[in-house]
Amino acid sequence: xxxxxxxxxxxxxPEVVAMKQQAIFAFNARAKxxxxxxxxxxxEPNFPTPEHVKEAAIRAINDNETHYTVPEGNHQVLRAVxxxxxxxYDLNYDPESQILxxxxxxxxxxxxxxxxxxxxxxxxxxxxSFTIYGPxxxxxxxxxxxxxxxxxxxxxxxxxxxxxxDAHKKIKIFMFNYPSNPTGVSYSEDELxxxxxxxxxxDVFVLSDEIYSELVYNGKHVSFPKLLPDQTILLNGLSKSHxxxxxxxxxxxxxxxxxxxxxxxxxxxxxxxSSISQAAALEAYANGLDDPIAMxxxxxxxxxxxxxxxxxxxxxxxVPDGAFYLFAxxxxxxxxxxxxxxNDILDNECLAILPGSFFGVGGEGYLRxxxxxxxxxxxxxxxxxxxxxxxxxxxxx
Length: 397
Hints:
By secondary structure, the chain is α/β, with parallel strands linked by helices. Helix content is 41%, strand content 14%. The strands form three sheets. The chain has a seven-stranded mixed sheet, sandwiched between helices.
């Protein structure tokens, strides 16, 4: 029998109790509970981790490298990360003081927000956006400010950025993600420079989530800290570039004094990340520079097939510059409630596609499709979606 006089939940942190389960996970769980579903929901590469990376991890286990490392990460790994970022993006980070290893970008965002935000602060989030940013802000008693990009081809324009920063004086963080999840949109160097020119006039941190930096289809990815190093905290990792989602290896990079503060939260959250994941990461960063190329080429083939197929059945969407998602506008002759529509498609066609509104303001009336799946599944998706449109377009509400 409980000795508590109050409901235990009433004693817990209100910000946590108020949180809802991530809708994308709940929808995906429903899809996985059904038989014979083509699942286009989760951003999970369907490629295996490269063999040489797996072999490095196995060697580490056999060599008993199974103990704590220092919280910021094994310094051999940090040096490899520094060299990789220099070769790939011409970034100069001191491995001894400006790089921190984290349990994926998710922990990187969490630790950075916890280190920076105070109650009453605001976080500017271009929307639609990845689903953790807003809840992370609220957890820290900060207010997410969503900038709707649906009218500007899902890009942040410098004049809109300035307008929001002028209107909201308590913005402490600009949470920037490109190539974008869920839209696949990215930015040219000129577009990024225009944003940097605005941001340098404000006392605002830029958290630049560039986890899809190696999945850019046209041109070369330009990293935001190259343009605004003193204000930018870079978030990246190996989940998407090297098909290593389960290894939970991320990096946070930035000015020395800022990284030192974020590391304090990281220590509390994790002590240090897995030594085996670090051994795998060392191999990926040191000897796997070209590993993403073959995967990127396959993703581009799948993107093109899915994009053309969606156009033929009436879905319009921007051609993704990167990542592996298509953000498709629901045709006018179908139900415009994206949540109802996605659930109906799942029930009737055994096809799982995420509602755009799961990704926040500006996502209403869209569907997000992940093409990090086989070409067979992409063709099956198009066949099922085509059948659904034929059967239900006349009954649209």
